[in-house]
Each structure stands twice: as structure tokens, then as C-alpha cells.
User: Fold this.
Amino acid sequence: MRKNIIAGNWKMNTTLQEGLALAKGLNEALKDKTPKCDVIVGTPFTHLACVADAIDTGKIGIAAQNCADHEKGAYTGEVSAAMVASTGAKYVILGHSERRQYYGETAEILKTKVNLALANGLTPIFCIGEVLEEREAGKHFDVVDEQIKGSLFDLSAEDFSKIVIAYEPVWAIGTGKTATADQAQEIHAHIRQTIAGKYEQTIADNCSILYGGSMNAGNAKELVAKPDVDGGLIGGASLSVENFLPIIEAF
Ligand code: PGA
Assistant:
């Protein structure tokens, strides 16, 4: 059956020293605990290797927040999937709405990144989600379907089964305005149905679909109690152990 996952997305926050302290703090807090979900921290590129050295990676997985859309070579400033994998990171967040919006990442670019991530043994945490006008126009189901089809549906069933999906309504990210648990359940069930329509029902049933967007200690329990909500991708509330731990313990 599918895994429950709580993943932190630190975004462009923390210096190396602050990030290390945060990762070590989380490691310490989980030392004597057995979480009922997989725990992941998504750190800036600069922190990946040091964080991998400092924590029990058997207990806390590490994610990059992006990777390049080329394998290697003359792409100044880029970080390849192979480089990410060589740090000890096992996951890569791809298609975050901030990357789509501010850095022009298209479905085609993301398709390439997903393929490179998989080729290098990384698990993509693939983000999808609609903006407010699309939700208000009732287009959110179509938007997420297009995002999935545009970047993921050329994958073989075997490769698709390695993908984690994060549904993140853009209007809920960093706004303090969460989707209700019922709204999340409704669209997560829809996403699973879309996957089942393309691949087999078992592949859809085994796919972890996370919710993201202002998830916190106060609303996590209600969200993850929904049958199709398999965890969360957490931004702001992942930046302190105090706020992140109760979300992990929501399961
Ligand atoms: P947030 O961010 O929890 O701060 O809303 C979630 C995300 O962007 O992944």
C-alpha cells in the first residue's frame, strides 16, 4: 500500500549553519520515536551533503527543491540530478508553483527533469495545483489533469510508480488559507482516478498524494485523516522543529 509522507520544503530559507541546526534538531526530536509516516526535509542545494552527514538518513530522507533539465555540461549555475543524488539526497521536489511561476518551468521542461531525476535514482515529488481564478472558474480538475498528463503520462508504469504527487493549490501556499479537508479529499480522489484511467488501479492506489498549502499543526490531523490525503508538503511550518513535529505526529 501507499506510504504516508510528511515532507518539509524549506524554500530559500536558512543559512547552512541554521539549516544544519534545524536538521539536527529534528533528528534529535525523532531519535526515540517511530513516526507513522516517512519524514523528508527539502533543503537548499548548498545544505544537502552536510545535512546528509549530520542526520540519520534511515529515518529522515533528504530532498532537493529542483534539479537541472540537462544531464551535465556548460550550464553555469545549474545543479544536475546526478549531483543531487551524489549528496545522499533521495528525493527532488519538481514543478513547485514558485518554479513554474517565477522561473518559467513548463510541462515540457518538467518532463525532462522528471526523467533525469528517475534516471539518477531520485524520487520526484511532483507538484501540481491551480491558481485562485482557476478554482473560482471551476477549472481546478482540468488544470491538475493537464499538469499530470503534460509531464508524467509518458512515463512507463514502472517509472510512474516511483512518483510522489503533491497537490498544492497556489492560493493556499504561504497565505494561511488552507484548502478544507473536504476540498483536498475531493481533488485528491480525482487525481487518483486520473492516474487509474491511464495506468492500472493498483498503481493509482499505491501512489502517495500529498497536500500542500498552509498545512500546520492545527489543520494537519483533519487533512491526513482523509482517505486520499497521504501526507503533506510543508513550507513555513517546516522551518522549526516545534511546528514540524506535530505535523509528523498527525498520523
Ligand atoms: P506553505 O508552503 O506550507 O508555506 O504554504 C507549502 C509549499 O509551498 O510547499
Summary: The chain has a mean pLDDT of 97. The longest helix spans residues 181-198. The chain is about 40% helix and 15% strand. Residues 39 and 58 are 10 Å apart (CA to CA).
